[in-house]
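Now for a chain:

_____
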Amino acid sequence: MNLTIDLSEQNAAVLEAQARAARMPAKDYLSNIVATALEGQRRRNVDNLRQQLDHMAAKVAPETTAEEMEEALHEALAQVRPQRAWEP
């Protein structure tokens, strides 16, 4: 993917200095920053889902049916999925 990012002169200078310190081209350095941020976001999403499922499991009564648990799972997934607004 190619992308243009408008940075202030100060932020561009900081990014270039950090890339030089890492002995990487600025493009590669920025790509690593974005990839790391996306992976962190994915991990947080997984952790949030795990916590939500654990929270729901703690509330499940022993007589709960498999169908009821499946419905609870779908509700939990609906709560942690990002809300998307699709535009044509």
Summary: Residues 45 and 81 are 9 Å apart (CA to CA). Helices lie at 9-21, 26-58, 66-80.
